[in-house]
Amino acid sequence: MPTDLNPTISHESFMKMIRPALGDITDVDKMAILKRSVIVVISKTAIYWRFPSPLEKQVKCMSWHLPDIVKASAKPIIANYKKQGPPPSNHEERVLWENAWLEEALRQHDRPHAPAVAPHVAAPPQVRVKRERIAFARALTAQTLRDPINLDSPSPSPKRHRGEPASGEPASASVPASSIPNPELPNTRAVSQEDDVDDVIPAVGACPELSLSQELENIMDEDGMDVASPELINMLKKAHILPEWRGQTCPRCGKRKMGALQYMKTHKVWAHRCNYRECHKFLQPHDFHPIFYMGAGSSHTPLQVQASILLCATAGVKETATHLVLDVAKKPVETIYTNLEVARSRYVEAKEKEISYGGWRDVEVDEVDVGRFVDLSIRDTKNTSWEQWGGMVERGNASSLRLFRLNPSKTKKNAPGPGPIKKRDWVPIAKKYLKNKNVVLHSDGARAYKMTFPGVIHCNVVHKKKKQMVNGKAEYTTFLFMFN
Length: 484
Ligand SMILES: [Zn+2]
Prior knowledge:
The structure is a single chain. The protein has twelve helices and 15 strands. The chain is an alpha+beta fold. It folds into four domains: about 10-65, no CATH class; about 130-160 and about 170-225, no CATH class; about 225-350, no CATH class; about 355-470, no CATH class. Strand 2 and strand 3 form a beta hairpin. Zinc ion binds near residues 250, 252, 253 and 256. Zinc ion (ZN) binds near residues 256 and 281.
């Protein structure tokens, strides 16, 4: 990068650079962070720094030619950190030293005349860490409302084999884990003690076997907080948004029926189970759904969030506004909106096949221009193509609406429209859906519609007021039917 010539980079480039650190958050949230923080990015060739500001501004940078900015003494510490080794023995001491250094730097800046902060504070002789089970941590907010945590009580014993009775000290300190109800699942049995007997928060300094991200993911998967409640599932079933799987044939084996909705303790979800002994597979209410989706890890979106997005989509909230309204990421919003569109068009395609006209009922037909495209690369005078659609509906029966795409000729750029439907577009439609069906066809005065077909009586409306003299007074009829 030619840093000497160009000592700043654009706001956009900088945002791109720090995007992995910010994640998928809204622009408003990004600016809220930028407004409050100093950000320093050290790349292989340059250092970039940005002071707090709520404005989008150029970010300063400087190339650096030093071979290494890490002190030799710090290298083994960093290497150890990278391979997730245990923290160095003097870790606490270093953290305290660092805090004191920072406080002193801030004092020199803010209050230069105040007494200096002691440069080195010795670590307190012994730090006692009170451990709790993860189940306890989950229920913490509900629990601490009633009972404060007793920090002086002993930590739970770390390992016990399943089925073996608790030995010695009480398993959990202040509250036994089995008595903690999951706040999100009032109707279900609390997590049994067998389930989380090994489920102890690791001691400070312990090296986890799994990578941290993996472990966090597991905890989030286990977490009951995002379980869709049976109330929500029943509500969606009543609204015919979710199907009733109970009693339906299993979609996986196709041999037996699905059972009632039940709480699956192992996966912490509500699901139906196949009755067939060799299948016994679980099925969540929104499995195989055309709009809702399943997903693991970071692409997992709880059903209640998906349902809220769907509500916004059907209530006419714009896709760009929904993620702000619900404070969720853009991705699930995009997925639900797209799935809804696809589901709608599939529905129309399926339903259209069932539509038929006849019985001397009134059928209306008209066309509409929905868009145009001007191809400026064409010097030709007729450079504008149109998106024109026709619609046909039986009067009083909105569900019989059938749409068909028309193929109008190109026009000049300033033409008001592509003109009425052409015979070449109308003939195949009329032959397929109206010929010999016995209908009264209503249309505008386009010439194509005036063509005669057996079993079709045509009548067109003239959009013109007609003056008639009735008893010496002028009266206007709004429209007139013309039969042919
Ligand atoms: Zn099955």
